[in-house]
Amino acid sequence: MTTPAPDLRLPDDLHRLVNPALLRKPDNLTVACYTFPHFHRSAYNDRLYGRGWSEYVLMRGCRPWFPGHNQPRTPLLGELDERDPATWDTYLDLARDHGVNTFIFDWYWYDGRPALHEALEEGYLGVRNRNGVGFAVMWTNHPWAYWFPTAGVAQDPRWPDVYEPSGLGAFEFVDPGPRSLEETWRGFSYIADRYFHEPGYWHIGGEPVLVIWDVGLMLRDFGADGLLRLFTEFREHVRRLGHTGVHIHASMGDLSVAAQFPDVGVDSYGLYNSIVAAGSRRPQSDVLPDYGVVAADVVAKVWQEIDDRSPIPCFPNVSPGWDDTPRHMAYPRPEGGTRSQWPGGLIVMDETPAAFEALVRTAFAYLNQRPEIPPVLTIGCWNEWTEGHYLLPDTRHGFGMLRALSRAINGQEKHR
After folding, report:
1. Predicted confidence (pLDDT) per residue in 244-289, tens digit
2. Cβ atoms within 10 Å of 336's Cβ, excluding its own
3. What predicted TM-score, i.e. pTM, was given to this entire model?
4. Is 14-142+177-410 assigned to CATH 2.40.440.10?
Protein backbone atom coordinates (compact mmCIF):
# COMPACT_ATOMS: atom_id res chain seq x y z
CA MET A 1 0.00 0.00 0.00
CA THR A 2 1.48 3.32 -1.08
CA THR A 3 1.63 6.25 1.31
CA PRO A 4 -0.28 9.32 0.06
CA ALA A 5 1.90 12.24 -0.95
CA PRO A 6 2.00 14.97 1.70
CA ASP A 7 -0.19 18.00 1.11
CA LEU A 8 1.44 21.05 -0.39
CA ARG A 9 1.25 24.18 1.74
CA LEU A 10 1.65 27.92 1.26
CA PRO A 11 3.93 29.75 1.67
CA ASP A 12 6.42 26.88 2.00
CA ASP A 13 5.70 25.30 -1.38
CA LEU A 14 5.15 28.47 -3.41
CA HIS A 15 7.89 27.69 -5.93
CA ARG A 16 6.69 24.11 -6.32
CA LEU A 17 3.22 25.32 -7.26
CA VAL A 18 4.07 28.02 -9.80
CA ASN A 19 6.97 29.19 -11.94
CA PRO A 20 8.83 31.85 -9.90
CA ALA A 21 9.32 33.91 -13.05
CA LEU A 22 5.54 34.47 -13.23
CA LEU A 23 5.09 35.86 -9.70
CA ARG A 24 5.44 39.50 -10.74
CA LYS A 25 2.44 41.81 -10.58
CA PRO A 26 0.73 42.13 -14.00
CA ASP A 27 0.63 45.55 -15.62
CA ASN A 28 -2.58 47.56 -15.19
CA LEU A 29 -3.83 45.21 -12.49
CA THR A 30 -7.30 45.76 -11.03
CA VAL A 31 -7.64 44.56 -7.43
CA ALA A 32 -11.37 44.37 -6.76
CA CYS A 33 -12.46 43.56 -3.21
CA TYR A 34 -15.96 42.36 -2.32
CA THR A 35 -17.65 44.33 0.46
CA PHE A 36 -20.54 43.08 2.60
CA PRO A 37 -22.90 45.91 3.69
CA HIS A 38 -24.15 44.52 6.99
CA PHE A 39 -22.11 46.46 9.52
CA HIS A 40 -24.24 49.55 9.85
CA ARG A 41 -27.77 50.40 10.82
CA SER A 42 -30.16 49.89 7.91
CA ALA A 43 -33.87 50.39 7.32
CA TYR A 44 -34.15 46.72 6.39
CA ASN A 45 -32.62 45.44 9.61
CA ASP A 46 -34.41 48.02 11.73
CA ARG A 47 -37.59 46.29 10.62
CA LEU A 48 -36.29 42.73 11.04
CA TYR A 49 -34.46 43.01 14.36
CA GLY A 50 -35.10 46.39 15.92
CA ARG A 51 -33.52 49.80 15.68
CA GLY A 52 -29.76 49.87 15.20
CA TRP A 53 -29.02 46.16 14.72
CA SER A 54 -26.04 45.15 12.59
CA GLU A 55 -24.07 41.95 12.19
CA TYR A 56 -21.52 43.23 14.68
CA VAL A 57 -23.95 41.69 17.19
CA LEU A 58 -23.26 38.18 15.88
CA MET A 59 -19.54 38.84 15.57
CA ARG A 60 -19.00 39.96 19.16
CA GLY A 61 -21.37 37.31 20.54
CA CYS A 62 -19.55 34.29 19.11
CA ARG A 63 -17.50 32.11 21.47
CA PRO A 64 -14.81 29.51 20.70
CA TRP A 65 -16.15 26.10 19.76
CA PHE A 66 -12.93 24.30 20.68
CA PRO A 67 -9.44 25.10 22.06
CA GLY A 68 -7.50 27.26 19.63
CA HIS A 69 -10.61 28.52 17.82
CA ASN A 70 -10.10 32.18 16.87
CA GLN A 71 -13.44 33.57 18.08
CA PRO A 72 -14.70 36.16 18.60
CA ARG A 73 -13.02 38.20 15.88
CA THR A 74 -12.37 41.74 17.10
CA PRO A 75 -11.78 44.74 14.80
CA LEU A 76 -8.59 46.58 15.71
CA LEU A 77 -10.18 49.88 14.66
CA GLY A 78 -13.40 49.22 16.58
CA GLU A 79 -16.90 48.54 15.30
CA LEU A 80 -16.95 51.26 12.66
CA ASP A 81 -20.30 52.43 11.29
CA GLU A 82 -20.10 51.77 7.56
CA ARG A 83 -22.99 54.15 6.95
CA ASP A 84 -20.71 57.01 8.05
CA PRO A 85 -18.52 58.71 5.39
CA ALA A 86 -15.80 59.08 8.05
CA THR A 87 -15.49 55.28 8.11
CA TRP A 88 -14.96 55.25 4.38
CA ASP A 89 -12.36 58.00 4.64
CA THR A 90 -10.43 55.49 6.77
CA TYR A 91 -11.22 52.55 4.48
CA LEU A 92 -10.20 54.41 1.34
CA ASP A 93 -6.88 55.39 2.88
CA LEU A 94 -6.28 51.76 3.82
CA ALA A 95 -7.22 50.59 0.33
CA ARG A 96 -5.01 53.12 -1.42
CA ASP A 97 -2.05 52.37 0.86
CA HIS A 98 -2.25 48.61 0.39
CA GLY A 99 -3.21 48.07 -3.25
CA VAL A 100 -7.01 47.75 -3.42
CA ASN A 101 -8.36 49.96 -6.19
CA THR A 102 -11.99 48.80 -6.50
CA PHE A 103 -14.72 47.90 -4.02
CA ILE A 104 -17.49 45.55 -5.20
CA PHE A 105 -20.52 46.17 -3.02
CA ASP A 106 -22.89 43.26 -2.42
CA TRP A 107 -26.15 44.93 -3.48
CA TYR A 108 -29.61 43.64 -2.58
CA TRP A 109 -33.12 44.14 -3.90
CA TYR A 110 -35.90 43.05 -1.54
CA ASP A 111 -39.54 44.10 -1.31
CA GLY A 112 -39.25 45.85 -4.68
CA ARG A 113 -36.54 48.29 -3.57
CA PRO A 114 -32.85 48.47 -2.62
CA ALA A 115 -31.91 47.01 0.76
CA LEU A 116 -28.76 47.28 2.89
CA HIS A 117 -27.51 49.92 0.46
CA GLU A 118 -26.73 52.62 3.02
CA ALA A 119 -23.02 51.75 3.25
CA LEU A 120 -22.70 52.54 -0.44
CA GLU A 121 -25.18 55.39 -0.71
CA GLU A 122 -24.34 57.29 2.46
CA GLY A 123 -20.91 55.94 3.35
CA TYR A 124 -18.74 55.41 0.29
CA LEU A 125 -20.55 57.85 -2.00
CA GLY A 126 -20.59 60.41 0.81
CA VAL A 127 -16.80 60.69 0.69
CA ARG A 128 -15.53 63.65 -1.31
CA ASN A 129 -12.11 62.25 -2.15
CA ARG A 130 -12.59 58.79 -3.59
CA ASN A 131 -9.69 59.23 -6.01
CA GLY A 132 -7.88 56.01 -6.80
CA VAL A 133 -10.49 53.62 -5.39
CA GLY A 134 -13.50 52.97 -7.62
CA PHE A 135 -16.52 50.78 -7.06
CA ALA A 136 -19.01 48.45 -8.67
CA VAL A 137 -22.11 46.65 -7.45
CA MET A 138 -22.96 42.97 -7.36
CA TRP A 139 -26.57 41.94 -7.98
CA THR A 140 -26.78 39.64 -4.96
CA ASN A 141 -29.82 37.58 -5.87
CA HIS A 142 -30.00 35.03 -3.08
CA PRO A 143 -32.89 34.73 -0.62
CA TRP A 144 -32.58 36.55 2.70
CA ALA A 145 -32.94 35.03 6.13
CA TYR A 146 -32.76 36.17 9.72
CA TRP A 147 -29.04 36.21 10.47
CA PHE A 148 -29.13 34.24 13.66
CA PRO A 149 -29.48 30.49 14.15
CA THR A 150 -32.74 29.22 15.57
CA ALA A 151 -33.80 25.78 16.72
CA GLY A 152 -36.62 23.71 15.30
CA VAL A 153 -37.30 25.66 12.12
CA ALA A 154 -38.55 23.52 9.26
CA GLN A 155 -37.26 24.13 5.75
CA ASP A 156 -39.53 26.35 3.70
CA PRO A 157 -40.70 24.36 0.64
CA ARG A 158 -40.65 27.51 -1.50
CA TRP A 159 -36.83 27.55 -1.47
CA PRO A 160 -35.67 23.93 -1.38
CA ASP A 161 -32.34 24.59 -3.04
CA VAL A 162 -30.76 26.95 -0.51
CA TYR A 163 -30.00 27.17 3.20
CA GLU A 164 -30.55 23.51 4.00
CA PRO A 165 -31.30 23.28 7.74
CA SER A 166 -30.10 20.53 10.06
CA GLY A 167 -31.74 18.97 13.08
CA LEU A 168 -29.65 21.32 15.23
CA GLY A 169 -31.01 24.57 13.84
CA ALA A 170 -31.76 26.53 10.72
CA PHE A 171 -32.30 30.04 9.41
CA GLU A 172 -35.71 31.64 9.31
CA PHE A 173 -36.45 32.89 5.80
CA VAL A 174 -37.54 36.47 5.26
CA ASP A 175 -37.58 37.08 1.51
CA PRO A 176 -37.08 34.84 -1.55
CA GLY A 177 -35.12 37.54 -3.35
CA PRO A 178 -35.72 38.96 -6.82
CA ARG A 179 -36.86 35.82 -8.61
CA SER A 180 -39.06 37.30 -11.39
CA LEU A 181 -38.01 38.91 -14.66
CA GLU A 182 -39.99 42.01 -13.74
CA GLU A 183 -38.28 42.51 -10.39
CA THR A 184 -34.85 41.73 -11.88
CA TRP A 185 -35.38 44.29 -14.62
CA ARG A 186 -36.46 46.90 -12.08
CA GLY A 187 -33.32 46.27 -10.04
CA PHE A 188 -30.99 46.21 -13.05
CA SER A 189 -32.36 49.45 -14.45
CA TYR A 190 -32.06 51.08 -11.01
CA ILE A 191 -28.39 50.07 -10.83
CA ALA A 192 -27.61 51.38 -14.32
CA ASP A 193 -29.52 54.64 -13.86
CA ARG A 194 -28.15 55.33 -10.39
CA TYR A 195 -24.54 54.13 -10.44
CA PHE A 196 -23.05 53.60 -13.89
CA HIS A 197 -22.49 57.32 -14.44
CA GLU A 198 -20.83 57.86 -11.05
CA PRO A 199 -17.16 58.94 -11.19
CA GLY A 200 -14.95 55.97 -10.46
CA TYR A 201 -17.44 53.27 -11.41
CA TRP A 202 -15.44 50.20 -12.50
CA HIS A 203 -15.16 49.60 -16.26
CA ILE A 204 -13.65 46.73 -18.22
CA GLY A 205 -12.97 47.41 -21.90
CA GLY A 206 -14.76 50.75 -21.60
CA GLU A 207 -17.96 49.16 -20.26
CA PRO A 208 -19.38 49.48 -16.73
CA VAL A 209 -19.21 46.19 -14.82
CA LEU A 210 -22.26 44.52 -13.32
CA VAL A 211 -21.32 41.61 -11.09
CA ILE A 212 -23.99 38.93 -10.54
CA TRP A 213 -23.90 36.62 -7.56
CA ASP A 214 -25.68 33.60 -9.04
CA VAL A 215 -26.26 33.37 -12.77
CA GLY A 216 -27.17 29.71 -12.28
CA LEU A 217 -30.18 30.70 -10.18
CA MET A 218 -31.28 33.06 -12.95
CA LEU A 219 -30.94 30.28 -15.51
CA ARG A 220 -33.19 28.06 -13.43
CA ASP A 221 -35.74 30.85 -12.99
CA PHE A 222 -35.77 32.32 -16.50
CA GLY A 223 -34.26 29.66 -18.78
CA ALA A 224 -31.40 30.36 -21.18
CA ASP A 225 -33.62 32.16 -23.71
CA GLY A 226 -35.20 34.35 -21.05
CA LEU A 227 -31.87 35.26 -19.51
CA LEU A 228 -30.32 36.07 -22.89
CA ARG A 229 -33.27 38.31 -23.67
CA LEU A 230 -32.94 40.04 -20.28
CA PHE A 231 -29.22 40.71 -20.73
CA THR A 232 -29.72 41.86 -24.34
CA GLU A 233 -32.47 44.31 -23.39
CA PHE A 234 -30.43 45.54 -20.44
CA ARG A 235 -27.46 46.24 -22.68
CA GLU A 236 -29.72 48.21 -25.01
CA HIS A 237 -30.98 50.20 -22.03
CA VAL A 238 -27.42 50.93 -20.89
CA ARG A 239 -26.46 52.12 -24.37
CA ARG A 240 -29.43 54.49 -24.39
CA LEU A 241 -27.99 55.98 -21.21
CA GLY A 242 -24.81 56.83 -23.14
CA HIS A 243 -22.55 53.91 -22.23
CA THR A 244 -20.91 51.61 -24.76
CA GLY A 245 -22.47 48.52 -23.18
CA VAL A 246 -22.11 46.55 -19.97
CA HIS A 247 -19.59 43.91 -18.86
CA ILE A 248 -21.40 41.14 -16.96
CA HIS A 249 -19.28 39.19 -14.48
CA ALA A 250 -20.65 36.04 -12.82
CA SER A 251 -19.46 35.52 -9.25
CA MET A 252 -19.79 32.41 -7.10
CA GLY A 253 -23.21 30.81 -7.37
CA ASP A 254 -23.69 27.65 -9.40
CA LEU A 255 -20.62 27.42 -11.63
CA SER A 256 -21.72 24.04 -12.96
CA VAL A 257 -23.60 26.07 -15.58
CA ALA A 258 -20.52 28.08 -16.61
CA ALA A 259 -20.45 26.40 -20.04
CA GLN A 260 -23.70 28.28 -20.80
CA PHE A 261 -22.30 31.69 -19.86
CA PRO A 262 -21.23 32.71 -23.40
CA ASP A 263 -24.63 31.73 -24.81
CA VAL A 264 -26.55 34.00 -22.44
CA GLY A 265 -24.19 36.98 -22.60
CA VAL A 266 -21.90 36.65 -19.56
CA ASP A 267 -18.49 38.21 -20.27
CA SER A 268 -16.36 36.84 -17.40
CA TYR A 269 -16.70 34.80 -14.24
CA GLY A 270 -14.94 33.78 -11.04
CA LEU A 271 -15.45 33.02 -7.37
CA TYR A 272 -16.45 35.02 -4.32
CA ASN A 273 -14.22 33.06 -1.94
CA SER A 274 -11.74 30.56 -3.35
CA ILE A 275 -10.85 29.26 0.11
CA VAL A 276 -14.40 27.97 0.52
CA ALA A 277 -14.25 26.27 -2.87
CA ALA A 278 -10.97 24.53 -2.03
CA GLY A 279 -11.77 23.79 1.60
CA SER A 280 -15.06 22.16 0.71
CA ARG A 281 -13.17 19.75 -1.55
CA ARG A 282 -10.84 18.59 1.21
CA PRO A 283 -11.41 15.00 2.43
CA GLN A 284 -14.18 14.70 5.00
CA SER A 285 -11.62 13.29 7.43
CA ASP A 286 -9.91 16.71 7.38
CA VAL A 287 -12.26 18.13 10.00
CA LEU A 288 -10.52 21.49 10.51
CA PRO A 289 -8.51 22.18 7.33
CA ASP A 290 -5.36 24.28 7.59
CA TYR A 291 -5.35 27.58 5.67
CA GLY A 292 -1.92 27.03 4.13
CA VAL A 293 -2.97 23.63 2.76
CA VAL A 294 -6.31 24.94 1.50
CA ALA A 295 -4.61 27.91 -0.17
CA ALA A 296 -2.25 25.52 -1.97
CA ASP A 297 -5.29 23.53 -3.11
CA VAL A 298 -6.73 26.74 -4.61
CA VAL A 299 -3.67 26.98 -6.84
CA ALA A 300 -3.14 23.30 -7.62
CA LYS A 301 -6.76 22.22 -8.06
CA VAL A 302 -9.51 24.85 -7.95
CA TRP A 303 -8.35 27.53 -10.37
CA GLN A 304 -7.66 25.13 -13.21
CA GLU A 305 -10.95 23.30 -12.63
CA ILE A 306 -12.93 26.54 -12.62
CA ASP A 307 -11.03 27.95 -15.60
CA ASP A 308 -11.84 24.86 -17.67
CA ARG A 309 -15.59 25.35 -17.29
CA SER A 310 -16.04 28.09 -19.89
CA PRO A 311 -14.12 29.74 -22.75
CA ILE A 312 -14.74 33.27 -21.43
CA PRO A 313 -12.21 34.93 -19.07
CA CYS A 314 -12.06 33.52 -15.54
CA PHE A 315 -10.56 35.92 -13.00
CA PRO A 316 -8.60 34.47 -10.07
CA ASN A 317 -9.94 35.04 -6.58
CA VAL A 318 -8.08 35.01 -3.26
CA SER A 319 -9.33 35.19 0.29
CA PRO A 320 -7.70 35.68 3.69
CA GLY A 321 -9.77 32.99 5.42
CA TRP A 322 -13.11 31.37 6.23
CA ASP A 323 -15.01 30.73 9.48
CA ASP A 324 -18.73 31.52 9.66
CA THR A 325 -19.39 30.05 13.11
CA PRO A 326 -20.88 33.36 14.39
CA ARG A 327 -23.92 32.49 12.27
CA HIS A 328 -24.37 28.95 13.59
CA MET A 329 -25.24 27.04 16.72
CA ALA A 330 -22.36 25.40 18.56
CA TYR A 331 -22.82 21.84 19.73
CA PRO A 332 -20.55 19.24 21.38
CA ARG A 333 -17.82 17.65 19.32
CA PRO A 334 -18.22 13.88 19.06
CA GLU A 335 -15.39 11.40 19.13
CA GLY A 336 -14.11 10.76 15.62
CA GLY A 337 -16.54 11.49 12.82
CA THR A 338 -16.28 13.49 9.64
CA ARG A 339 -16.45 17.20 8.88
CA SER A 340 -20.11 16.93 7.87
CA GLN A 341 -20.89 15.43 11.29
CA TRP A 342 -18.87 18.06 13.15
CA PRO A 343 -18.52 21.00 12.88
CA GLY A 344 -21.17 20.50 10.18
CA GLY A 345 -19.59 23.09 7.91
CA LEU A 346 -16.23 24.56 6.96
CA ILE A 347 -13.87 26.15 9.47
CA VAL A 348 -10.45 26.93 7.98
CA MET A 349 -7.80 27.19 10.67
CA ASP A 350 -4.63 29.21 11.20
CA GLU A 351 -4.73 31.72 8.39
CA THR A 352 -1.51 33.75 8.26
CA PRO A 353 -0.42 36.88 6.38
CA ALA A 354 2.54 34.96 4.89
CA ALA A 355 0.26 32.30 3.38
CA PHE A 356 -2.15 34.93 2.10
CA GLU A 357 0.68 36.89 0.49
CA ALA A 358 1.86 33.75 -1.28
CA LEU A 359 -1.67 33.07 -2.52
CA VAL A 360 -1.88 36.59 -3.98
CA ARG A 361 1.42 36.05 -5.77
CA THR A 362 0.15 32.81 -7.30
CA ALA A 363 -2.82 34.76 -8.65
CA PHE A 364 -0.31 36.97 -10.46
CA ALA A 365 1.19 33.86 -12.02
CA TYR A 366 -2.28 32.76 -13.13
CA LEU A 367 -2.85 36.11 -14.86
CA ASN A 368 0.63 36.23 -16.38
CA GLN A 369 -0.04 32.84 -17.96
CA ARG A 370 -3.17 34.33 -19.56
CA PRO A 371 -2.15 37.70 -21.04
CA GLU A 372 -5.18 37.66 -23.32
CA ILE A 373 -7.66 38.27 -20.45
CA PRO A 374 -8.14 41.49 -18.45
CA PRO A 375 -5.72 41.57 -15.47
CA VAL A 376 -8.29 41.38 -12.68
CA LEU A 377 -7.82 39.91 -9.20
CA THR A 378 -10.85 39.67 -6.92
CA ILE A 379 -10.63 39.36 -3.15
CA GLY A 380 -13.29 38.05 -0.81
CA CYS A 381 -13.65 40.02 1.35
CA TRP A 382 -12.91 43.48 2.74
CA ASN A 383 -15.04 43.26 5.87
CA GLU A 384 -17.02 40.04 6.27
CA TRP A 385 -16.22 39.49 9.94
CA THR A 386 -18.93 36.91 10.54
CA GLU A 387 -17.55 34.67 7.80
CA GLY A 388 -13.94 35.07 8.89
CA HIS A 389 -12.68 36.54 5.63
CA TYR A 390 -11.64 40.15 5.85
CA LEU A 391 -8.66 42.37 5.07
CA LEU A 392 -9.48 44.90 7.77
CA PRO A 393 -7.11 44.85 10.76
CA ASP A 394 -8.07 42.75 13.76
CA THR A 395 -6.59 42.14 17.20
CA ARG A 396 -4.91 38.90 16.12
CA HIS A 397 -2.92 39.86 13.01
CA GLY A 398 -3.15 43.64 13.28
CA PHE A 399 -2.64 45.11 9.82
CA GLY A 400 -1.04 41.85 8.72
CA MET A 401 -3.41 40.87 5.91
CA LEU A 402 -3.38 44.34 4.37
CA ARG A 403 0.40 44.49 4.59
CA ALA A 404 0.70 41.05 3.05
CA LEU A 405 -1.40 42.26 0.12
CA SER A 406 0.75 45.38 -0.17
CA ARG A 407 3.97 43.37 -0.18
CA ALA A 408 2.66 41.19 -3.00
CA ILE A 409 1.28 44.08 -5.07
CA ASN A 410 3.81 46.81 -4.43
CA GLY A 411 6.88 44.83 -3.47
CA GLN A 412 6.86 46.75 -0.20
CA GLU A 413 4.48 47.74 2.56
CA LYS A 414 3.33 51.11 3.81
CA HIS A 415 3.31 51.25 7.60
CA ARG A 416 0.56 53.19 9.30
Report:
1. 999 999 997 778 899 999 999 999 999 999 999 999 999 999 999 9
2. 9
3. 0.94
4. no
